[in-house]
Automatic annotation (TrEMBL):
GO cellular component: extracellular region
InterPro entries: Chitin-bd_dom (IPR002557), Chitin-bd_dom_sf (IPR036508), Scoloptoxin-like (IPR052976)
Pfam families: CBM_14
Protein name, UniProt field: Chitin-binding type-2 domain-containing protein
Stretches assigned to the Chitin-binding type-2 domain: 54-121
Region (Disordered): 146-198
Keywords, comma-separated and alphabetical: Signal
Signal peptide: 1-17
MF GO annotations: chitin binding
Length: 198
């Protein structure tokens, strides 16, 4: 009898210790809704606060974009994809630079100041994105700096999984077609995969 009571007490106490999940999952504790909206990792609010979510990939081409509204501490990758129904959707992926660094639009990297171009000038270098995805002689990307011969590695091209990337030359849809969801349609990863993104 004592063993049955002991087991019953153990089961009831362990059941009481298990937290009940919320019915609606919100942002991680300490994570702002803006950080969650952009799909940024936990802790982004410690690097950028408050987070401005006004940047959009709508009407932009394939490329990397410094987010001037967030003092270049955040950058976005705009990637047009061809959907299975033949429409083009613009995917927007957002990233936060490591603490103490800024996204340099000239080098397309997160760099520690003073080695970065001033953030206020970033938009004047957006044109450099026209080289993203282009391959020059010997398989070296057009915008890449020369690589030391002993450091060169063969190029590896990943196989497409679910979407087919669209090259900039293919972005002009026929005159009678409309982009998926209207002119300002931008798909963020969280919404694309069923989350609360866009």
């Amino acid at each position: 009898m004592n063993s049955i009571v002991a087991v019953l007490v153990l089961v009831l106490s362990s059941a009481a210790a298990v937290p009940v999940p919320d019915q609606e999952q919100g942002p991680v504790r300490g994570e702002s809704p803006q950080s969650a909206y952009l799909g940024l990792p936990s802790g982004s609010d410690e690097i950028v606060s408050p987070i401005d979510i006004s940047f959009s990939c709508a009407h932009r081409s394939l490329g990397y974009y410094a987010d001037v509204g967030n003092e270049c501490k955040i950058f976005h990758v705009c990637n047009p994809v061809l959907l299975s129904d033949g429409q083009v959707a613009m995917m927007q992926y957002s990233f936060v630079c490591p603490n103490g660094t800024l996204f340099d639009q000239q080098s397309l990297t997160c760099t520690a100041p003073p080695g970065t171009a001033p953030c206020v000038q970033a938009e004047s270098f957006y044109y450099l994105n026209r080289h993203v995805g282009q391959v020059g002689a010997a398989g070296v990307p057009v915008a890449s700096p020369p690589v030391q011969p002993e450091l060169q590695r063969p190029a590896v091209v990943p196989e497409p999984k679910h979407e087919t990337p669209v090259h900039q030359q293919q972005l002009a849809p026929p005159a009678d077609s409309k982009p998926a969801g209207g002119d300002d349609s931008v798909v963020r990863p969280a919404s694309y995969y069923g989350g609360k993104g866009n």
